[in-house]
Amino acid sequence: MKYFLYFTIIIIYISLTSFTAYGQQTEDVYLHINTSANNVAPESEIKITVLATAYKPVNAFDITLEYSPVLFELVRASTEGSIVSLWKSLPIENKDGTIRLIGGLIEPFSGQNGKIINLFFRARGDFGSGDFVIKKANFAFADGKGTLVQAKESHSKVVVKENAQLARSEFSPSTPQISGVTITKDPAEKRPIISVRTTDDGGIKKVYVRSRSWMLWDDWRETRLTTSIPRYAWMAQVKIFDWEGKEKTFTIYRWDIAGLKLLIIAAIITILWLLIKRFGLRSRTLATILISIFVFLVSSTNAQAAILSLNPSSGTFNVGGTFQVQILLNTEGKSINALDIQLLYPSDKLQIISPSIGKSIMTIWTSSPKADNQQGKLTLRGGIPNGITVSKGLITTVTFRVRRTGQAIVRFGDATRVLLNDGKGTDALRTTQSGVYEFVLPPPAGPIVASETHSDQKQWYANSSAILRWTTSAPTTGYSYTLDNSPSTIPDNIADSTQNSVSYKNLSSGTHYFHIKAKSPDEVWGGTTHFALNVDVDPPASFPVDIQPSKRTTRHNILFYFQTTDAHSGIDRYEYQIIPLQLHAASIEQGSFLFIEAQSPQVAKLNLGKYLIVVRAYDKAGNFRESQERVEIMMPFVFWATNKYVITALILLVILIAVIARIIYIKHRKIERKHTQKELPESIRKKLEELKKYRQKYGMLIFLLMFLVGSIFFNPFSASAQTVKLSPPLITTVPRYISNNEILYLGGVTNFPNSEVIIYLQNLKTGETFSYSETAGAKGEWFYRHPSLLSEGEYVLWAQTKIGDELSPPSPQINLKVRSTAIQFGASRLSYETLYLLFSIILLTAFIGLSGFTIFHAKNARKKHKMLKKEIYEAEEAIKDGFDKLRQEIEIELGIIKKLKSKKSLSQKEKEREKELLQDLKTIETHISKEVEDIEKVA
User: How far apart, in Å, are the Cα atoms of 822 and each of 648, 784, 858?
Assistant: First the structure.
């Protein structure tokens, strides 16, 4: 029976452990190294593939791979087919047998054997066995918290021996293509940033960039896939080299800067022209001015070469002590003859005792080194006759005294210049290297002090109440202590307490120092111990979230920038969350909390829809400031159709085309009426009436001419038309505003991890109150997504923490106004944006319709006008012929009278007839000349 009991217990234990092993899903990440061959001859080529297996989605990694540089040489790499979408720099950082891979994934990866990179090595001439080992591999889970996990180590052995097969990889290298180069602006630095996209990041060995600010290019400089260029450069070139030495170059222009500089040049030329016009400058003077301007523009391109650095660049020093920093110059092979250096340091933590000028490459000081400990600035100005070329030239040695604990950055100011020995004073400073120093309190000389609320003197705490305890190894009769803002205060010799603890409340943000010393039984005071309390109860400064290319865009890949400061502890990290605001775009599960740690700028790939980007900036004490910005991804047609400027332009175009259409329509109807009613111009009617009068005087000839005119003009034609008191939860993430076409999201924190958070939503119009429940995470974080759209109106939000049957007091109420941006028809909603789109389509349709209407009537009016002009022309021609023949008849009759006059004297009646004929002839000749002019005008 005893053995049976033992056997039963063992079986149950194995069953439970087996169930646990198989029932829980592992969260481990594994790395694998696949090699194309394990035994190779010298000069063989081996492909090493780094694969990842993750049972939970990951979105970032930092991998270090080691190999034997004696046996193997890295010859190229490839990222084609990689799961990685973003590389921190170039994928390969190869140094002394160590390869570092740092990157991220826009779409988190989970699964087996996801390819990270292919590495191609060549076996050298030596024989032996070498390992490819993953020494360090950290992955970040895509859980909204940036949880890190260390992947299991992996290695693969490759043996190089003489009688092995000569191996070749199947990869055929091709020069990577530059698929695109974009320029964006860094909101923090206000400098343009170039981002290079290639078809194979791993195929790139080196990247170079250069820019043109005026006429000349600056020097090529090696850089990363993302780099900055000078603020006012109007042209830039990117050159990439693959592992075979082949190169590709891409040129990009900044047309706004180019246009600005063209305006500057045009203004200079205009001023010169005005000077010439005003003062009559001679050609030699003009040539001198133009050459000077050209030299100025050419010399404005920075011939950057020099590097300024600090030595040491880092270190830890005690408060109250001193340390020395050397300022060093590297001219990079160019001759330098003058320097103007501005060194900046935090005056609250450091002060300069003296800069040493005893040993320096500068032989002439234009002014003595000047240290301003109030502003935290050191100024150095001097020269070097005939110039100097150095790689590690000492400019000066600065002695600093440490004033308080913390971290200090010593850097060179923007006014720092290093001038070339070229006779022009060209600034050759290419880059500067700052120094970062840590300051701590000296070891305790008195009682040993500890704090249960602020245990680490280097860390910051969001707790304004401090408890301090101390102890000594020797007997004491009392302690003297004080708390102030100075790190080196010595307490007075008056005992404050015999207890070994003290507490302080309502401490302000900043560093406070506790100083204590003990008195021995023989009335002797011992040494002083200093203890730092770092308190920060204030969140970081408010900051904007800058969306590139814009808040409303057609691009699915967006960049968003964020940057802020913290007055006390400093910024520790940023986290962001992208919340879909529409049902069709929602992909977040109920209760999920998707804040992801990130740095600015951040890339996001979004589908069509509206999103809320929430960014939190955390300081080193754990306080955070939240900033929100909305972004909408739209189809190109919808983007333009709902743009207010486009809608305004369409309205103006429709009004304009409607006015034009009305004018042309009226003109067309007028021409058509004239043609239909056979209306002749007033001048033609008068001439016809005059011809009719002459017909009565001169017979049927004129009648026949009128008939001819009528038959021509009236030729018909056709036209077409057509009670344990629980503290309430804190609501931190709440939209500034929301529409009745967007989903409501709420987020916050509670002091009780894994507790239940009840969210209340009350409609002030109807008085209805609804409650919803969420479970907080391991850190007390909770997130709520409303299951449906809210109707228009005003609401009140609040929340309570619930543990068991106990409820906390309600949190402060938050007023929320839901704006009407949609028209509701039963269960369906039609957003105003959709209405704008329909309105734009109607306007566009109206514009097209009115344009067609205008073209139709304009075409027909022109056609009828041409026909009417032709008919009027023919009528004018016929009238001219009629008057011409009438003149001939009158001339014949005058000829007859002239003959009669030669034979006999005319009677009075015949004389009157002759006079009348001569008058009519004169009138007709006038008409004929006028007709010729009218016909020429019509023609």
Answer: 21, 23, 42
- Round to whole Å and give the CA distance between 85 and 386: 52
pLDDT digits (tens, 9 = 90+) for 532-558: 999 999 999 888 888 887 888 888 888
pLDDT in tens, 365-422: 887 788 888 889 999 888 888 888 888 888 888 999 998 888 888 989 878 888 888 7
* Cβ–Cβ < 8 Å for 568, 538: yes
Does residue 182 sit in helix, strand or coil? strand
Overall fold of domain 178-255? Immunoglobulin-like (2.60.40)
How far, in Å, are 501, 570, 601, 798 from residue 190 at the CA level?
Answer: 51, 22, 13, 41
Percent of the chain with pLDDT over 90: 9
Spell out the domain ranges in the chain: 29-160, 178-255, 259-299, 306-438, 448-535, 545-634, 730-808
The sign one gets for the Cα dihedral 38, 42, 45, 48 is positive
For the domain spanning 448-535, the CATH number is: 2.60.40.10
What is the three-state SS of 135-179?
Answer: EEEEEEECCCCCCEEECECCEEEEEECCCCCCCCCCCCCCCCCEE
Residues 862 and 667: their CA atoms lie apart, in Å, by 10
Answer for the pair 798, 813: CB distance below 8 angstroms, yes or no. Answer: yes
CA atoms within 13 A on the CB side of 718: 2
Cα–Cα dist 384/366, whole Å: 11
Correct CATH for 29-160 of 3.40.1160.10, 2.60.40.680, 1.10.357.10, 2.60.40.10: 2.60.40.680
User: How many angstroms separate the Cα of 570 from the Cα of each of 464, 534, 536?
Assistant: 17, 12, 10
If residue 797 lies in a helix (H) or strand (E), which one and from where to where? strand 793-803
